[in-house]
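Incident review: delayed structure delivery

Summary: a single-chain prediction request sat in the queue longer than the usual turnaround. Root cause was a stuck worker, restarted by the on-call engineer. No data loss occurred. The affected request and its eventual output are reproduced below so the record is complete for anyone auditing the incident later.

Affected input:
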Amino acid sequence: MKQELHQEPTADLGMLEIQGRLRQLEQRDLWLWGAAIVVMLLLILAVVSFSLPALAQEESPFSVHHLDQAVQGLLGLVLLFSIHVIYQLILVRRLRRQLARQLEIIARQELRTEQLRQLVLTDPLTGLYNRRFLEQHLVVEIARSRRQDYLLSVLMLDLNDFKQINDCYGHSAGDLVLTHFAIHIRKAIRSSDIPIRMGGDEFLVLLPECRPEQVLSVLSRLHGLEVEHHGRKIPFAFSAGWAACQPDDGPKQILERVDQALLTDKLTGKTQQELNRLEAQIRQAEKMEAVGRLAGGVAHDFNNLLMVIRGYTELLLSRADQSDSLSASAKEIQKAADRATALTQQLLALSRKQVVQPQVLDLNAVVADMDKLLRRVIREDIERVTLLKPGLGRVKADQGQIEQIIMNLAVNARDAMPKGGKLIVETSNVELDEGYVSSHPMVTPGSYVMLAVSDSGAGIDQETQTRIFEPFFTTKENGKGTGLGLATVYGIVKQSGGYIWVYSEPGQGTTFKIYLPRIEETDEKAKLEEAIAPPARGSETVLVVEDEMSVRRLTRQFLEENGYRVLEAIEGCEALRISNQHKGPIHLLLTDVVMPQMSGRELAHSLVPLRPEMKVLYMSGYTDDAIVHHGLLEQDIAFLQKPFTLDALAHKVRAVLDARNGK
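Output delivered after worker restart:
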C-alpha cells in the first residue's frame, strides 16, 4: 500500500484510485452505523433475556443476582463495541491520510500538466502563442465573428533577411530581433487581438473588428524598427499579407489566401513602399506644423512693426501737401508696407492663425465668379476647362481665402505651362472611407467637397513633391516667386479643416486635390447691405492696453487727435490699477490679446464686472484660443486684425461705442 502511495500515477489512474478510497470510506461509515445498530439490538435482547427468568420465578428483575449477570454481559458488549469502533476509526484515519496524499499528487500533476500545456501553446522566446494555439483558436474566432457579425482580418508577417541577420550577427542577434519584433507586435495591436508565432520568422495576428484597409495603420507602428546588439544597431524590415475572413472561409482557406498575399508582397515589396510613403506624409505634416508655428510667431511681431510704419505714414500723408515730394515718398512707404502686410497675411495663413470670416459657400458659385479674373491672369495659349458638379454640397469657409487658393493654384499651373496647355478646375462630392484613410493616415473619414486644379504641364518629380508645401521653397528663378504660394494654400486648407494632396508625374502634368468638409447648412440667399460707415470722431474715454510701446503711442496719438480721452497701460496689471484710480467712466477697453502675465481676455474678464458699461475691443496680429477657436472668431466679440489702418481703427472704435448706445 505504501509503495503504491509513493508512486505518481497518471491523472486518470489517480482519479480512479481516489474514487476507490472514497468508496472505502463510505463502506467504513456503513460498518460503524451497522455495528451501532447491532450493539443496540444486542443490548435490548440482553436486558430482555436477563429479565425473563426473574419474571417467570416472580422475582424482581433488579435483584442483586440478576443485576450482576446483566452488568457483566453489558460490559462485555460495550467492550466489544468499543474495540470495533476504535478499529474502524483507525481504518478511516488511514484512508483519509491516503486520500489527502493522493489529492496532493493529483494537484501537483495537474499543475505540471498546465505548465506543459502553456509551454506548448506559448513560444518561450517571443512569449506569443504558437501554431498549436492557432489550430485550437482560429476556428473559435471565425465562429465568433460570424455569430456576433463583425469582420475578422488575418495578418501574416515575415521578417525579411532573417537568415542574413543570423549569419552576419549570430543567432543571439536573431533571437533578439524576434523578441523585439514580438514585443512591438503586442504594442501595435489592441489587447483583444491575438498574436501568434507561426515558425522561425513568421508571425500571424488575428484582428477582430478590423477591416483590411485598416491593417496598414497597424503596420505603420512596426515600421522602421531596429535593435542594438553588442553596440551595433541592426535594422530589420518585414513583408506582410492580410485578408478578411469571408462567410464561407474555414481556417485552411483564410490561411491560404493570407499566405498567398504574403508571397506576393515578398516579390513586390508593396507594403514597405506604402509604409515609406505614409512615414513621409507624417514627417511632412509634422514639419509643416513646426514651420507654421514659427511663421505665426514671426508674423505676430512683424505685424506690430507694420502697424507703426503704416500708422505714421498715414499721419504724414494726412498732413503733407499732395504735390510735395515728401508726400510721394510717404506713398511709396505705404505701398511697401501694404506689400509687407500681404506677405504677413500669407505667413498667418500658413500658421493657421489668421482670423477668418467663415460662411456657407457654394464652391461652384465661387469658381464661376472667378472666371473673369482667371481670364486676365491666364494666358490665351492656355485652354481653361471648368467641370462643376451639379448638386454640389456646401462648405463653411472664408470666401476670400478660397479665392486665394484658386488664384495661387491657377498661377502655379500657368507657370508650369510656358508653351501653353490646359487648365482644368473641377468640383465634386466625395466620400472618404476607411480605404482612403488607410493610405492617408491624417484624414478623418466622412463627406467632403473636392476642389481640383489640374494642368498639362511638365509635372513634378517625387523629390520636389516632398517639399512642395514648404515655405520659401520654389523651383522658379530668383525674383520670380517668394515660395509662399503653395505654403499659403496648405495653411488655408488646414485652417478650414480640410486636406490637400498633390498628384504628379514628370511629363504628365499635375493635379492638386483639396477636400473640404461637407456641411448640411443651406447657402445664405440674402446678403446684408453694407452699412454706412459711422463717424470716426468721439469724446469717450478709451483705455488702451498694448505691450508694444510704438503701437501704443501711435494708437493713443491717433485717438486723441479724433477727440477721445485716452488712458494707456503696458500690460494687464497696470490696466487694473489705472481703472481703480480713474474716477470717471471708461467707455471702451482697447486691448491686445497676447500679452505677458495677463492676456487681453483675462483682463476683460476682470474689468467688465467692475465696469458693466464698458465695451471691449480686441486687437492682435493673431489670436489664441481664448478669442479664436481653430481660426474662427467667436460670436459677439469685437476684434480688429493687425496691422490695421488708422481709418479702420477709428471706424471700429466708433462702431463698438455706438453699439453700446444702441445706435
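Verification: The first strand starts at residue 129 and ends at 130.
Action items: add queue-age alerting; document worker restart procedure.
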